[in-house]
Design goal:
This protein is an alpha/beta fold and 427 residues long. 45% of the residues lie in helices and 16% in strands. Strands 1, 2, 3, 6, 7, 10, 11, 12, 13 and 14 form a ten-stranded mixed β-sheet that branches. A two-stranded antiparallel sheet has the order 4-5. The chain has a two-stranded antiparallel sheet with strand order 8-9. The protein starts with 13 loop residues before the first helix and ends with a helix.
Length: 427
Amino acid sequence: MNILPKLTFAAFAATALAPLSANAQELELTYLSHWAPDTVALLEQAAATYSEENPDIAISVRAVPFGDLLTTIRSGGGSGGPTIASIYDLWLPELVRDELVAPAPESVASEVTSAWPEGIAAAAAVDGRVYGIPNEINVYALNYNKSLFEAAGIDAPPATWEQLTNAAAKLKQNGKQGLGLINSWTAGVVHPFASLLASNGGTLIGDGVPKLDSNEALETFQLFENLVQEGYTDPLMGTADANTTGPFLDNFVSGNTGMIIMANWWESALKAGMGDGFDNIGTAPIPVGPSGDTARSISYSWLTVVNAGADDAEQAAAWNFLSWLNGPESGANGASAMADILQSMGILPSRASDVAAYESALGRPFLEGYVGALENARAFPVVLGGQEFSEALQQVIEQLEYGQISAQEAQANAQADAASILERADR
């Protein structure tokens, strides 16, 4: 666990954590999430525990599908909307620009910058000002079916792109899809591509400028083109989204797909689908491309923010609750209640004390490879226009997967789209 900086156990300021006065008027806070019912129930339990200690604060949880989360936050901005919301870090710059989220008070901001790794804390800030409390961190790795590998005569997971295509070819000869690629879901399409690009020495955006016109990016587009042309991946087997398993996961669970590139939070879905067969799944680093020097993944995080339209008392109560929920006193054995909730889904917590508290659990075979990927991970670029940029890149990659354009056309289109989107967003 030496990839994380040493934790400074600074206490929150008394004003941030002290229970509100028993004479204060009862405040009703709402917490918007995209979690499934079982996880929402755990959050509700944590909220109930907090309310027992702070009887003048009532907290209700509302959940919407991931695809509706951002639009719900936008439509609910202002007084009357959700007091607290869980967001993908890519959305933060635009929510700050549109004055929909409130800056964190100094006591909370200082805790975020001292108790979380620097890169994760930075993703919760815009122009150096903290706007949320990080919770989960996600990275990508190669998941593979050990039985299918053995049947196809593959001795070890691929460490390079050449080994990746060779393994895919052997799996195809055995009637299996070599590598499953997601379509129909923005992050599911773009994040594996970005991880392969990072393992080839490239990047999506550098210093605010799109870098999809690089040779490293062209080689990544060509890898996708080759996988499709050789029949090593079938887009008809790859439909998925963040809320349903779809053909992508179903084909991997049922043994029709030999390899996928997926994030750590997928563990709970794999376990549910495979049962005892889950032990047959291996985790390995992202294979290194011809222009790369080491295995890399992109990383992204989630954070909780407070509605800028809530009144001062509601904002203060919301930050008070979030400080407790993400602090080391709210969970078991030095972990936060948030970390306990995340681990119920197999998700990596990001606070240093939570990682320490869950060290043994994070060392289990499936997650160990993901924890190891954090050391060389590159954060997905968090910029104005980031969501639109991701959606445009998704469309280009899917056109390539379905054989509608060539790798060279994909590169040219992706770079042109990105340049236009980022320039427009920066005006």
